[in-house]
Amino acid sequence: MPFEFDIEKRAGEQLGVEISSAVFDRVQTCDNHCSFCFIYQLPKNLRKSLYLKDDDYRLSFLFGNFTTLTRFTEADLERVIDQKLSPLHVSIHVSDPWKRADMLRNERGAVSLRWLKVLLENGISVRGQIVVCPDHNNGEDLERTLIDVLDQYPLLEAVAIVPLGLSQFNPEAELRIHTAEEAADVVTLCEKYQLVAKQLLGKKMFWPSDEFYLLGDMPFPDASSYGGYPMYEDGVGIVSSFIEEFHGRKINDDETLAQQTSGFFASVDGATPGGYRSVRDGSIQNPAGDTGLRVVHSQPVELTRRAPSVTSSSGNVGILTGEYAASVISALVSDYGDRISVLPVVNNYFGGNTAVSGLMVGEDIRSVMLSHVECGVFLLPDVCLSEGRFLDGMTLEDLPSSVVVLPTDGHALRNFLEKVMQ
After folding, report:
1. What angle do CA 164, 165, 168 make, to 5 degrees?
2. pTM exceeds 0.70 for this model
3. Greatest CA separation found in the chain?
4. Where is the signal peptide (predicted)?
5. Residue 363, CB half-sphere, CA atoms under 13 Å: how many?
6. From CA 43, how far away is CA 171, in angstroms rounded?
7. End-to-end CA distance of the chain
8. Which of 35, 280, 287, 339 is 20 to 30 Å from the Cα of 64, by its Cα?
9. Any residues with CB less than 8 A from the CB of 74 and at least 6 apart, and which?
């Protein structure tokens, strides 16, 4: 039975009521069994919320979680259209129906993209994702998928093409990471069909993630070519935007990108729907799982005694970062001299190709800090912390020396270095 309350408040005064959960019933869990799902590759004894998978269109709208639509219904369609729940985020992976069913390990995967066409025809904005797995949906399969997307789903806003993420706990023997040549081939193929899409539809449509450019040693596109960074949250354009920020240039005319997202390789781009993303406005918690695995927005960290007083006499500065970001940051800070060291943190905890900053854990960070005693100050990106804790449960207090936690964007890094070098 519903309750009614009368609340008196002044005009403009906050109501003081917060919604504790984004949904008022149970989250629609995922019944796919994708071999490349990162949740199956987690070590034991992490936070319970990290192991929850969702395939819920509501969380796709609210948090950007990707849905395969295998549990989507007529009632869901009616609600999405009536309430204009847009944009949604849909995992495509491969256009061949039976190969898609095989990748999802769910026979409904062969037919669930029918909902995608109906959503688009009814004015719902949809962003897509293709997780590329070597020997499964790359090469000719990927090209066929790009062609089919242009033909069958031209109204898609954009499609991110991302590599699978593998940890040392991966139980699937047939999965492997991309070779440099394969990564370069993905970039070349996507850029080819970017041009086709631009000619046919007036938009580039297909966006290979930054990881493919790094893995394939391919030159990054100019920042201006990203057109507002439509797939930024999926690791597309983060390098270019970080460089632009570092040099003090705007990455978006209205600056909304800088406000909404600042993670630098903070995600596992092979993850299937599982609530890996952080909340969009910070007010509602994602019930589908912990935000620790897929942090896209910077999470403010309250520091006490672990934040040192930094001056020009503080000694060498060590920038702790993931392996992917290390080469990019090294090039940016090279003009600052020997006082600034970029310290790549090899992810021994997860292993595999988990080289993103958001998955760095306290144990690995501690090891790097102990081997660089010459550094008087260590910088740490905020994306590897969730409520002050690393994924392995360690806190800042467990590290061997003081750290400065910075927002993970180019502006913050440049401003800090300028202060230190004065």
Report:
1. 135
2. yes
3. 68
4. none
5. 9
6. 11
7. 64
8. 35
9. none
Give the alpha-carbon dihedral of 184, 187, 191, 193, to 10 degrees.
110
Q: What is the pLDDT of residue 255?
A: 45
Measure CA 67 to chain center.
15
- Cα–Cα dist 152/147, whole Å: 9
Report the amino acid identity of residue 92.
Answer: I
| Neighbour-count burial for 199-212, b at 16+ CB within 10 Å, e otherwise | eeeeebbbbbbbbb
Instruction: List, in sequence order, every residue forming a beta bridge with 159; answer none if it has no partner.
Output: 128, 206
Q: Which CATH number is associated with domain 316-421?
A: 3.40.50
> Which runs of E-coded beta strand occur in 265-391?
316-321, 340-344, 375-381
Asked whether the beta carbons of 227 and 204 are under 8 A apart, the reply is yes
For residue 87, cis peptide bond before it (omega within 30 degrees of 0): yes
Provide the token pair at 49.
């919320």
Distance CA 177, CA 187 (A): 15
Phi (first) and psi of residue 126, to 5 degrees: -135, 135
Angle at 50 between CA 45 and CA 54, to 5 degrees: 140
**Residue bearing tokens 């041009």:** 195
The CA distance from 410 to 213, in Å, is 19
> What is residue 96's predicted lDDT score, i.e. its pLDDT?
98
The structure tokens listed for 207 are 């966006």
Tell me where in the chain the CATH 3.20.20 domain(s) lie. 38-260
Which amino acid, 26?
R
**Gap between the Cα atoms of 16 and 300, Å rounded:** 22
Show the low-confidence residues of the chain (pLDDT under 50).
254-307, 312
pLDDT of residue 2: 64
Domain spanning 38-260, CATH class: alpha beta
Angle between helices 323-333 and 238-246 (to 10 degrees): 30
Cβ–Cβ < 8 Å for 109, 68:
yes
- Identity of the amino acid at 375: C
Alpha carbons 60 and 67: distance in angstroms, whole number: 6
Question: Within 13 A of 173's CA, how many CA atoms are on the CB side?
Answer: 0
